[in-house]
Amino acid sequence: WRGRCGIIISLFAILETPFLVMWAKRGAPKSAGMTGAYAAMTSASLGCLLMQFICFHLNSLHLILWHFLPLALMSFAGFLVAKKVLRW
Question: Which pTM was predicted?
Fold first, then answer.
C-alpha cells in the first residue's frame, strides 16, 4: 500500500468520528474538546487496527509517518472541532 495507510486511516476516522460525537452529545460530557479527541482517537485507532491486516511494513519510519501521525492529527482535529460542535 506504500503510503496510502495514512489516507485510509484518516478517512476511516473522518467517517466514524461524527457518529461518536453525536453519540457523546446525548451524554452531555464535561469536556467537549476531550470528548472529540477521544472519539477521533477511537476511530483512527480502529482504522490502524484494520490497516494491520493489509499493511505489512514493519519499518519504524513508515509506522510513525503513516500510522501514528494521522492518528495524532485526527485526535487534535477532533479536539478542536468538538469544542465547536458540542455546546451546552
Answer: 0.73
Half-sphere exposure of 71 (CA within 13 A, CB side): 18
pLDDT digits (tens, 9 = 90+) for 22-64: 887 787 678 888 888 888 888 888 888 888 888 888 888 888 8
Residues in CB range of 70: below 8 A, 6 or more apart = 5, 6, 7, 9, 10, 13, 44
User: From the CA atom positions of the chain, what is the Rg in Å?
Assistant: 14
Q: Determine how many CB atoms are found less than 10 A away from the CB of residue 75.
A: 21
Dihedral of alpha carbons 29, 31, 36, 42, sign = negative
